[in-house]
Amino acid sequence: MSTVNVVDNTLQYSHGDVTTVIKLEDILCVSSNPSSHNVLFFCAEGDPKDDPERVRLKKIELESLPTELVPLKASVPSHLNKETAVHVVISTGSGTGKAKTVYQDAIQPFLTHLGVEYSVHETEDPETIPHLARTHFLEQAHRGIPQTVILLSGDGGLVDILDVFYRSNTTVKVPPNLVLIPCGTGNAMASSIGLRSGPLPGLSTLLRGSPSPVPVFAAEFSPGSQLVADEGRLLVPIDQSNETMSHTLWGAVVASWGLHAALVADSDTAEYRKFGVERFKMAANELLYPSDGAPCHRFTGKITMTTSESPEQTHQLEELEHMYAVATLVPRLEKEFLISPGLEPLSGQMKFIRFGPMSPEDAMQLMTLAYQGGQHVQQSTVTYADIERLRIDFQEDEARWRRVCIDGKIVVVEKDGWVELRKEPRRSLNLIH
Ligand SMILES: Nc1ncnc2c1ncn2[C@@H]1O[C@H](COP(=O)(O)OP(=O)(O)OP(=O)(O)O)[C@@H](O)[C@H]1O
């Protein structure tokens, strides 16, 4: 004999002597069949000292459904139907390395429960996702096969796929639908479309969301520029497929120079990655207060931009020295770091945020304001504009001050080189949100 009640935002289910209490906010969905209702919910798993955020998907079967749970009823969405090729990509190197556990604890039981057939791909090195994108996703998109790609990664997985699609001249008949299950460090895109961390928001979006095209920018570099690989130890051609000899990278999140690019580059080592999102703050600290006692660097170069207000005119900034220069298509670079408040994700709007050299304390204060709801853009020291294009002509002797970040990838621009950023008109990928 079992009983079920909803009390104080919890589902209380008793069967024999055992009572299970589930917070309503931990319930992913209810899937019903003619005779029963399956409630899928998350609960803590393992020792919280090892991983306080680890959760596992579980199921209870009810004969009758309390009315409070009726809105949680869900059926298999069209992007998981039998005609769709469903792929799960586990980026084992993302964030602090928990993607595989998230797959086993949440994604696998969820897809099995829905009876969805899918292929699983686990990364072995940085080439796994680009290779998969070239040989499977692009090929199937060209043949018009609907695809849904569930990405257990940070922004890197999305960007790797994007780069393959936009670099190729292959026509895309049916854009794949990407679903983000945030497992990275910054998770800028996931945070920007409102996904909190953990598998529940991602799976809820997979069930209830719908696809929108992902807006993209293209960053063209002067011909001598090279991509940084192997934790900064190697420089390789920008087009790693060596198919086109192009010097363009594509991104959906951020293009930056100055403090942001330097801290992303410096913190992309196995040693720093262990610290999760703290790695960005640690690297920022080292750049603002160098341990050799040197003053904080003044990044020098000419910035020219075209604003959305007057797209026919290019406008050169008077200032030649900069500390922070970021162009972005998303509002958040981390869950709490609201770099461009008011920017609607997936709208195609591109924002430019810049400030010049200032004391490390003042720069820290601006960063703190960004964590406090994006208040930095209200300061008179910060430029905040809607842009269509942006060009930087670098005037730096040392290569490390000519590093540009494109969605986490780092390019070292040649001496006296440049980068030019523009909105990409093509739309080859969808994001479920
Ligand atoms: N097994 C692996 N060995 C080496 N590199 C890997 C492996 N798995 C993934 N990678 C690479 O590591 C990078 C991880 O990027 P990802 O964006 O997923 O995580 P992140 O950098 O921690 O998060 P974010 O980009 O959101 O800050 C990707 O470039 C990916 O190709």
Automatic annotation (TrEMBL):
UniProt record, GO biological process: sphingosine biosynthetic process
Annotated ranges, domain DAGKc: 81-223
Domain of life from the UniProt record: Eukaryota
What are the protein's GO molecular function terms?
Answer: lipid kinase activity
Q: Which GO terms describe its cellular component?
A: cytoplasm; membrane
For this entry, the protein name equals DAGKc domain-containing protein
